[in-house]
Amino acid sequence: MDNVTIGAVATLLGLVLIALRIQIGVALGLVSFFGIAAILNMKAAWGIVTAVPFNFVGDWNLTAVPMFLLMGYIAFSANLTSGLFRAMRVVLSRLPGGLAVASVMACAMLAAASGSSVATSSAMARIATPEMLRYRYDAGLSSGVIAAAGTLGSLIPPSILMVLYGYFAEVSIARLFVAGFLPGLLSAIMFSAMIIIRVRISPELAPPVTETFSREEKLAAMRDIWPMPVLIVIVLAGIFIGLFTPTEAGAVGAALSLLLAAARRTLSIKVLREACLSTIIGTAGIFMVVIGTVLLGKLMALSGLPNALTGMLLEFGGDRYSVILMVVVLYLVLGMFLDSIGILLLTLPILLPITEAVGIDLIWFGIVLIKLLEIGLVTPPVGLNVYVMKGALGNLVSLPTIFRGVTWFIITDTVTLTIIVLFPMLSLYLPSLMEF
């Protein structure tokens, strides 16, 4: 058996193990170990398996992962995010489907603070969906909007997925963060426009909210959310102007969230303990997957499988749009069964050599991948965010209803993805203004 065949067999076995519900990092680590042993020898495989995880975990750039997680968990635990939906509701409730539009904007702001789609959906599900149902909004719209808008946590910076992609693709994480801003904003606007159009056509989906708010109430609601804009602006502006690196920005964001919680008098030992524990658990889970992926990358390099696939693609006249089409199909299929981090890290060792060979900009490609992962988070039969919604809502809304509700958002996301693919400058304009 030649090296390329060993690489292909190992990859297929990894997918089989994942399908059998073996943890992704463990599955990839096992097939990588035995694949490397088959190509080299058992001693070399042991050497790589013992050295790679230590070197990886000790990489300074990846300290951004626990720091951004800590920033988000402190914001949640200290209730810095609790007033977001209320503030957006006060401002936007008079629009057609105003409570749903308010949910989209609140999710966008919350995503910018947390960097996590699952955390955003889980938090907003308990706040916004019951409120929409109380005003007799359609159950599918009320739940689907949170499941879909929660995915904005993947694209709106800071994003854990962007940190991981930037590390593996060896591109600037700062430029990735900035590149995701306009596509993330476009996604939120597209969701809001779709809701308004649907409600105008079918008013029964979202009965008008007749209550009014005084100027004082609006000002009070906006004062209640001041910590979040401050946190988001300082972190993103600092990265954009080069005041600090994305790794340093994670530490700055975590420290700033602590100061803001103290200023709001919501910081306590219990809050800090909960945030730190959640950060440790979240980081360990992510790093387990990434270590398996690093080992798979070593196997791919030794086997030559990515180069063989690249050669085959170029032989058949593959161009950038052929590659993008292939990636779209691959990610939509994998998105039905795997979580977003698993999909990204499983495919990067194979896809990156192909994209570089056909001259695709890796910053733009990263935004395309993350947008595809957003769609995968709500695509049946798995749709991780849909199950997060179900877990948060209990028996309030059924699972088929939530999947029905996200259908229109999947269609809208497909349109948004098409725009991002056809107009690369939407992603690349802001990074082009950066001087570093």
Give the helix/strand layout.
Layout: H1 3-19, H2 24-39, H3 42-57, H4 64-77, H5 84-92, H6 98-114, H7 117-134, H8 139-149, H9 152-155, H10 160-169, H11 173-179, H12 181-201, H13 215-224, H14 227-240, H15 246-263, H16 269-303, H17 305-315, H18 320-334, H19 340-357, H20 362-376, H21 384-393, H22 399-422, H23 425-432
Helix pairs in contact: 1-2, 1-16, 2-3, 2-16, 3-16, 4-15, 4-16, 5-6, 5-13, 6-7, 6-8, 6-12, 6-14, 7-8, 7-21, 8-21, 8-22, 10-19, 10-20, 11-23, 12-22, 14-15, 16-19, 17-19, 18-19, 18-20, 19-20, 20-22, 21-22
Describe this protein's structure:
This protein is mainly α and 436 residues long. The chain is 78% helix and 0% strand. The protein has one domain. The chain is built from 23 helices and no strands. Helix 6 runs parallel beside helix 8, helix 8 crosses helix 22 (399-422) and helix 10 packs parallel to helix 19. It starts with a helix and ends with a helix. The mean pLDDT is 83.
